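Hi L.,

As promised, Glycosyltransferase family 1 protein:
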Amino acid sequence: MKVLMLNYEYPPLGGGGAAVCRDMSELMIKDGDKVSVVTMAFKGLARKENYNGVEIHRVACWRSKKRVCHPWEQLTYCISAFHYIIKKMDIKQYDIVHCHFIIPTGLLALWLRKKYGIKFLVTAHGSDVLGHNNARFKYLYGIVKPMWKSILKNATMVTAPSYYLANKICKAYSNVDCQVVPNGIFNNLFGVGSRKKSIIVAARLQESKGIQDLIEACSKIDMSEWEVNILGEGPYRDELEILINKYNLQEIIYLRGYISGEEYVRYLSEASIYFTGSWFEAMPVSVLEAMASQNLIIASNIEPHRELLPEDCIYCSEEELIEKLKMNMKRTEFVKQYDIEKYEWNNIIQKYKQIYKQLV
């Protein structure tokens, strides 16, 4: 099968949606399929290359940062990619076009459908769904709503990684049938290491990640012999540093910056407790990774967390967070097993391939 993947960001650019696209593409190559990806160019990256079997086309556009892409930058990708595909690619050779993110990439898929009559599958990832991230995009959602609905109307099929996100889509546009296909992980990459008295957070440093709640909680309990490692970068770093200094927790709570690869896996394997205090998520891959690492997970009370985790992992108030921290820190064994096998990438990719066969 020949698949054309459309995604405005692809590693090393972007976040979770980019990584999902990469993992899918490389797994399909291993399965004997052909995958081409059309994505954004960025300084230092080859305009065209074959990486792990995936044919990657990077089109000229505006993008100033690796991890963050502004809406006007995303629009330049759609315009540039449309002209690139028309001039330099034979779109008719592909069996299926798989578009990641309703907005902005769905706009590109819509233009291609209108020009060539092609079918396309669109996968939602989070902030591309109306109402998911009102704190940042409330006004933008109002502007793009007609276009957003048009993309869904013209899509042959729509998928989302969680029931929460699928329900959000259907609430905003009731005429769509959205299938749930979870994000996947490679379970064999994660495991239980030599546990330390360590609490780990892996998230972009934004207020909505709730990391400040953990810092507040740590200021109210005995943290002797324990440390907190916060992995990630983001615009809320200064505020977190101020809070850490306010409570004199500089020798307990460490902002480690962005960490990936083997070092990230090591942090997870050695951590006893994993914390996520997010106000909203689509389908948090980092939680799946903590599950595969068998960390003791403490998670905020949001639907995507409840889809993944048992009740005893969820906290609903600051008091519950403090109690769960105290309880887990007193344990003699820092290991918990979860139902993780169904999120193994090799199982998830087969679900997508079944969808592809239906569409073809």
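The CA atoms of residues 252 and 345 lie 36 Å apart.

Thanks again for sending the construct details.

K.
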